[in-house]
Amino acid sequence: MNDASVSEVAQWFAEAEAAVVLTGAGISTESGIPDFRGPQGVWTKNPAAQFMFTIDNYLADPGVRRQAWEARLVSPVWTAEPNAGHRALVDYEATGRLRAILTQNIDGLHQAAGSAESRVVELHGTVREVVCLDCGDRNPMLDVLPRIEAGETDPACLECGGILKSATISFGQELVPEVIETAVAATRGADLFVAVGTSLGVYPAAGLCDYAVARGIRLVIVNAEPTPYDGDADAVLREPIGELLPRLVAGAR
Q: How many Å apart are CA 204 and CA 12, to the nearest integer?
C-alpha cells in the first residue's frame, strides 16, 4: 500500500515512538540551494563542475582547488535560511518522537533551524568546516574564506602546510564508518522511516530504506520525482516539502 493519504501519514507521525527522517537535496532547494542532479542542478547545467568533486583531481591539481575555493566563497549556503520543512522537523523533535535526522545535505540547515546537533547525522559531511587532508586539523570554513577574499587561491593548513578541503565527502573518498554505523543503528531501531527530498539513488544512504523494508518499518517517501523505492513504500507523497512536512507534524504535537 503506497496510496495512503496525508491524513493517514500524519497519524503515523503521531503514533511513532522512534521516527527516523532521511533528508536529501530536495528539502534545501526550497531554501535556494540548488541540487546537483536535478533539472536545474549544478552538474546538469555544468557537467564539468563534477571534476572538482573528485578527490584525486582535487589533490593533484592546484587549479581544481582554486576553482573549488572560488565556488565555496560564493556558495548560496552562506545566505540560505532554513525553510518550513526544516522547522517542521524541529517541531517534530520537540514531541520526543524523532530519533534522528540522517541527512545527505552538507549545508547545516537542520542545525540552523534548531535541530539538536546530537540528532543530526551528516552522512556526507559538512561544508561549514575545513579539514586538512594531511594532519586532520579541522576549523570553521568561515575562518578560512577570508583568506580567499584576501587573495590566497589555495590556502594551506596553518598547522602543517597541508592541503585544505571542505569537510565533505568527495567522489573517491570513503564515508566515515562510524557515521554510517550510527545511521544504520538508528534505522534498525525505528518504527517509522521517512525519506524526504531524496532520489534514493546514492548509496549507502539509499540502502537505509532496505533496512526499513527488511524489518517491516513503515516507509514513507516524500519526493517530487519517482524513486527506486516507491514500490516498497507504505506511502509516497509528491507535495512540496515546505507545505507537506508542517501538515504531517501538526497532528503529532
A: 26
Residues 119-162: tens digit of each pLDDT: 999 999 999 999 999 999 999 999 999 999 999 999 999 999 99
Rounded CA gap, 117 and 161, in Å? 30
Count of Cβ atoms closer than 10 Å to residue 5 Cβ: 10
DSSP 154: S
Residue 124 falls in the annotated catalytic set: yes
Locate 44 and state its grid cell: 546538469
pTM of the model: 0.93
Q: Among the options 124, 128, 165, 218, which is catalytic?
A: 124
Tens digit of pLDDT for each residue in 201-234? Answer: 999 999 999 999 999 999 999 999 999 999 999 9
Helix (H) or strand (E) holding 183: helix 177-188
Sheet holding 164-168, edge to edge: 138-140, 125-132, 164-168
The residue to which cell 584525486 is assigned = 56
| Helix, strand, coil % over all residues of the chain, rounded to 5 | 40, 20, 40
